[in-house]
Sequence to fold (187 residues):
Amino acid sequence: MAAASAPQDNSILSALALAMVNHPRASLQELAKAIGISKATLYRFCRTREQLVDRLIDHGLKAMDSALAQARLEEGTPREALQRLIALQLEHRELAAFLTYYWNNAEASEDSYTDWEQRLDAFFLRGQQQGVFRIDFSAAALTEIWLSTFLGLADAERRGRVARAGLASLVERAFLQGAQAQPQAGT
Fold:
C-alpha cells in the first residue's frame, strides 16, 4: 500500500476518514459518493474496505505523529508548546476522529501510541517542573486529560455541538482551567 504523499491524496484520505466515522456501514461506493469522488478513484486508493481502514490508520498515525513532532514540545514555554500542539492536532481532526472510532483495528500501532504517551508525559512533566501545570496529577494523568479534552471537543465540533471558530482556544482553556467556575467578586 503506497503512502499518501500528494496534497490531494491527503485531502481525499481525510475526507474518507470523516466519511467512515459519519457512515460506518457505508460501502466503498457509498463512501466515494459521500466525498464526491468516483468509485474508480477510490479503488485506486484501496480495493477493499479492510485495505481502506488499514491505509487510513497508517496515514492517521503518521499525520498525528508528524503534528506532534512539529509542535516542538521541548521548545519555548509549555504554554506556547501546548498552543502549537493543539493547533497542529486540530489540522487533522478528521483523522483523529477516525482513529478514535477505529483504534481497536490498529494492532500494529500500539508502539506508536506508547511513543505518543511517553512524549506527552515528558512534556507535561516539564510543564509541572516549570510550575505551569498542576502537580497533584501525574504527568500521565495530564496526558490522558489532554487527549480526552482534545478528542471530546473535536468530536463535539464534528457533531455540531461546539463551533469550529475558537475551538483551539476552547481546548486550551478547558484543559488548563477545567470546568471550575471562577470566583465572582464579592463571593
Remarks:
- The chain is about 70% helix and 0% strand.
- The mean pLDDT is 87.
- The two ends are 62 Å apart (CA to CA).
- The first helix runs from residue 7 to 22.
